[in-house]
Model the fold of this input.
Amino acid sequence: MSLTRDEGWALLLEWTPGEALRRHARAVEVVMRAAALRYGRGPDDVESFGLAGLLHDADYETWPEEHPRRIVAWLRERGEEPIAHAISAHYTKWGVPHESMLDKTLLACDELTGFVGACARVRPDGIAGLESKSVLKRLKDKGFAAKVERDEIARGVELLGVDLAAHIEFVILSLRPHADELGLGAAAPKA
Done:
């Protein structure tokens, strides 16, 4: 792999002006780096899994109608085919098969990471006290974080062959050390 994390971050900053989507990209990167150790080949996969998480929506804000064509093309021009394929597969409307653990893991982590973040943001203690049972309960409430693709969460977990509650717990534990950076910490007390 020749693409560095610094190059990926620079591209994200250039193509994604909004702080919210940058924070989502960073959160998925954090979870994907941890997922490389859990579902991938270990340390050998950390960089590619992390970059897939960081860049999966890099073109969405500037070119929503072209997402993810631009980022996939950019990655392929640099010889990063496994990451390009995973990002293609994460956009399920294209029907690209989920072949590698990278492909499956990105699908299983992307929407769920966003959903866990939404659950944390409505709690006074943020992600600190969030438990998987609370997230499972919120998943059943279609009105909460309504734009989250719950079918993609279910499909990703199925592809990984893991229990949904255990995967939610994994995502929570992966995000918790980064709570302040990701805006998932305790809410400021009301004056």
About this structure: The chain has a mean pLDDT of 94. The chain has one domain: 5-180. Residues 5-180 form one domain. The chain is about 60% helix and 0% strand.
